[in-house]
Amino acid sequence: MPCACHSFNLTLSDMAHSFVKAISFFGIVQRIYTLFAHSTKRWKILVDNVPSLTVKSLCNTRWESRIKSVKAIRFQSPQIRLALLELYNSSGDDANIAKTKSEAESLANSLASFEFLLGMVIWYDILFSINIVSKKLQSKSMSIGVVMNEVQGMITYFEKYRIEGFESSLNTAKILALDMDIEPKFPIKRRITRKRQFDENENDNNDEEIQSPEESFRVNYFLVVVDIAIASLKDRFEQLEVFDNVFGFLCDAKRLKSLDNDDLRKSCTSFMTTFTHNNFSDVDADDLFSELKVLQMTLPNDLMSAFEILEFVKAADCYPNVSIAYRILLTMPMTVASAERSFSKLKLLKTYLRSSMSQERLNGLATLCIEKIMLEHINVETIISDFASRKARRNIFI
Fold it and tell me: What is the DSSP string of 228-288?
């Protein structure tokens, strides 16, 4: 089953590569960072004009993290534009002064475009909403039911945003443009007309509907991004929906207790059919149904996750089929974020300065970093005393 966080990441990738203007938007964001990060003098100009949030480079793998890059420009567009104009007017000893001035002027003109400001507001809203859900899905105790609820919530959000989002984003972009002394107006393209033939009527050319620049941006930019987001979410989480149909009734105590006899028996039969091979099944549907009926009565009224229900079942030691079902459920991780964090810690531990570290020491340090929460509840003084007592040299004098 694909990782839920990676699926959200690929959804954003589909949106960003859907058309040329989206690609160009993120290209401008990266160019702003590259221009100022090229030298300390340029970065000093940026810091003098932008005291709070600094521009950040785009990440090629974690697309939801691009919210940090867009946020710095979204809330500091006037200051960043002033920094670009100051860099353009500065007379430094840069060897590529002509290239620097040209790049600064180009980026300042891009920030002065109302289309760019409106696209920036739209992308910030999209990245912010997806980033919140992506952070939540990285939890260790994530279950299928919670993931499906979050996905359905995102689809509902984009469907509502498709109807109401453009007007709100347009109003926000107009306020931002007025603060930057920019006219909130879309560029008007020249209308292309063709010569009318002798057998055509005068009203034939009026049959084609002429879109306004605002409507053209909404149809060719805004709706394209949102529609691809909705389609990509439905397509990439289709397999997860199949798993939810099989394991959904076991996700939490509230959902399990809400099932009546017919729905519960139907879910047990579907579960047994899924895990049946050559007339051999891991569980018996009738026994699983009977055990779950008793479990519905004995479970506490508290909100319990699948792992907590399994602990309760193991403590009771009288629900063999339910125990097997929950163990199968919990062997299927919704995300691999925890495993990837282990590799991230290894990159921090074994650096170029620690290249000669032994495997045993590396494993020990990695375990301490990965299990940091468990480490906080360990008495370090007791461990040190025990270690010292075992390793102390004892000289026996006769």
Answer: HHHHHHHHHTHHHHHHHHHHGGGSBHHHHHT--HHHHHHHHHHHHHHTEETTEESS-HHHH
Whole-structure pTM value: 0.78
Model pLDDT, residue 125: 93
Higher pLDDT, 333 or 13: 13
**Phi, psi (rounded to 5 degrees) for 252:** -150, 165
Question: What is the spatial distance between Cα 63 and Cα 22, in angstroms, rounded to a whole number?
Answer: 13
- Cβ atoms 25, 117 nearer than 8 A: no
Residue 207 banded pLDDT, cuts 50, 70, 90: very low
Are 67 and 26 in contact by the 8 Å Cβ rule? The answer is no
CA distance 148 to 240: 8
**What is the identity of the amino acid at 264?**
L
d(CA 247, CA 326): 9
CB 136 within 8 A of CB 8: no
pLDDT at 395 over 70: no
Scanning 275-358, the segments in alpha helix (DSSP H) are 285-298, 306-316, 320-330, 337-349
Find out whether 218 and 118 touch, Cβ atoms under 8 Å: no
Instruction: Please compute the mean of the pLDDT values over residues 66-72 and round it to a whole number.
Output: 89
Confidence label for 161 from pLDDT (cuts 50, 70 and 90): very high
CB 64 within 8 Å of CB 130: yes
Angle between helices 114-137 and 223-236 (to 10 degrees): 20
Structure tokens at 349: 């531990």
pLDDT at 1: 65
* C-alpha–C-alpha distance, residues 51 and 29, integer Å: 18
What CA–CA distance (Å, rounded) separates 372 from 141? Answer: 17
Number of CB atoms found within 10 A of residue 376's CB: 8
Give mean pLDDT, residues 132-146: 79
Q: Which helix (H) or strand (E) holds 105?
A: helix 97-111
Q: Where is pLDDT greater, at 346 or 67?
A: 67
